[in-house]
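Narrative of activities, Objective 1.

The group set out to show that a structural description can be obtained from nothing but a protein's sequence at a throughput compatible with the screening campaign. Below is one input-output pair from the validation batch, recorded exactly as produced.
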Amino acid sequence: MRLSTVILPIHRWAEGQKIWQRAEDLGFHAAYTYDHLTWRTFRERPWFGALPTLTAAATATERLRLGTLVTSPNFRHPVTLAKELISLDDISGGRITLGIGAGGNGFDATALGQEAWTPRERADRFGEFVPLLDRLLTEGAVTQRGTHYSAVEARNLPGCVQRPRLPFAVAATGPRGLRLAARYGQAWVTTGDPKLYEAGTPEQSVAALRGQNERFAAACEEIGRDASEPGRILLTGFTPDRTAPLESVDAFVDFAGRHAEIGFTEIVVHAPIPDSDFDVDPKVFERIATEAPAQLVHPA
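Output recorded for this entry:
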C-alpha cells in the first residue's frame, strides 16, 4: 500500500514550493494536483495551472513522483498535451504519472465557449482521446483522423524518459471507461460511488468500491490482461467517510486497511487547506504520512 497526497494548485509558488518539498520530506510516494481551470468552492479563490505547477515542483524535488488527478478532454487536446507531458517527464527525470479521466460538468466544461457535453459525448471523446495520446507518447510521428481529435504528422521526439511512455492512471467507473483503463492504464483510479457521498455509509462505500474493482478486473480479463498487474488508486475525500480517516493515525490505518483488502494499492489524501472541505489538522496529517505506511506494510 502506497500513500500519496494531492496538493491543490492554489498557492503562489513562494509558498507552494515549500508544500511540495514538505511532501517529499514526509515520504509520500507521489504528490498529485488537479488539472482544472477552476474547481467547485475555489471558483472565487486563487487557482493556478496544473502543468506549470508540476514543472516547478519537478525542479524543487528530487524523488517524489508527480502527476495529475486528473486531466480530462474538457479543455485539453491530445497533440498539445503530449508535447507538454514529454517535456515535463524530461524535466522531472521520469517521475510523472498522468491521471486522466473523461471530465464532468464543472466550470471546465464550458470555459472554452462550448456547450457541456452529455455523458455519452464525454465517453465518446474519452474513447478517442486516450488511444491517440497513447500513440503520441510512444511513436515518433503520428497521423490519425478522428471524429473529435486528429493529429497530422505530430512529432514528439525524443519521447518520454519513461519507456515506452509515462504511466497512465485512468479514472473510470462505467463500462467504457473501465475498458479503457484495462487496456491503457498502468493504474485505475476511483473516488468511490458519488451517490453515496451525502447519505451513504462507510460500509456501503466499501461494498460499492469492491464492486467497481471486480468490474475493473473483469475488464482486464476480457482483453487477456492479468488483472493483478495494474495498480488501484483511491482518491479519498469523496466517500461517506469524508475527512474522518484523517482524524488520527489509527483511524487512517483502519480506513486504508479496509480498502487494501479490496485490492487498492495506493491511497491518496488531500493536503490540508483551511476553510475548505480538506480542513484537517496539519500535525495529524504529518503523523499519518510518517507513521501510517509502516503499519500498512505490516498490519496488526
